[in-house]
User: Which sequence fits this backbone?
């Protein structure tokens, strides 16, 4: 069983990278390994389908590496970290990681997340949706969104949230529902990180995030999309 999908593991702890590699290979993924940030930058030229990135590397900090990846690519990034604090999570997501796994972790759970992120990255539909007289456009197939005609740089997770909300106009999606959409399964404790994604998303999508046009917070309920689809 060969999925043909390439996963880059950036991790200097051999014990961890060996286990993760074994699990991923068993699922039919091709695995490339980088033990330093420098090696990772080289390996990224091979266009991996997903990156598993350790936060603590000997040369370049994982956060910095993630920011560098984000400048050039929308590849899903799952961060591995020993830091479990909320601040670190939000910091990680703020720099464009799509997901976070705290050490020690279950390799099975990591593989489940890898699959979920890849599944969504593959889903393609052909259509550009235009809202509020063209002020927001969403190109589903190319995973791109435009604000007043200019491309806005969204992480894959932010894009996923935007699409999920816009596909359910006027309907409130709870944080739990958004967690399931983003991760592919419900994961307790992830709802705070949804808020962090939402904050970033709004900054990018809204002209004024204090009086949002497109994404409204419904107190104690969740979020809803309030853009109006343009007639074709
Ligand atoms: Ca490490």
Assistant:
């Amino acid at each position: 069983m060969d999925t043909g999908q390439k996963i880059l593991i950036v991790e200097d702890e051999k014990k961890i990278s060996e286990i993760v590699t074994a699990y991923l290979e068993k699922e039919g993924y091709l695995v490339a390994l980088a033990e330093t940030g420098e090696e990772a930058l080289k390996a990224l030229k091979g266009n991996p389908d997903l990156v598993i990135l350790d936060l603590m590397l000997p040369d370049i900090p994982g956060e910095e590496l993630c920011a560098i990846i984000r400048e050039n690519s929308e590849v899903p990034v799952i961060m591995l970290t020993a830091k479990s604090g909320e601040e670190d999570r939000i910091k990680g997501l703020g720099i464009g990681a799509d997901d976070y796994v705290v050490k020690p972790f279950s390799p099975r759970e990591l593989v489940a997340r890898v699959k979920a992120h890849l599944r969504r990255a593959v889903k393609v539909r052909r259509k550009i949706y235009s809202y509020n007289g063209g002020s927001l456009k969403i190109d589903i197939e190319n995973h791109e969104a435009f604000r007043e005609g200019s491309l806005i740089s969204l992480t894959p997770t932010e894009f996923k949230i935007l699409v999920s909300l816009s596909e359910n106009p006027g309907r409130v999606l709870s944080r739990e529902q958004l967690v399931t959409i983003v991760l592919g399964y419900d994961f307790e404790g992830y709802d705070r990180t949804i808020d962090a994604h939402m904050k970033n998303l709004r900054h990018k999508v809204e002209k004024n995030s204090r009086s949002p046009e497109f994404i409204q917070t419904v107190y104690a309920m969740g979020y809803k999309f309030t853009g109006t689809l343009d007639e074709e």
About this structure: Residues 107-122 form the longest helix (16 residues).
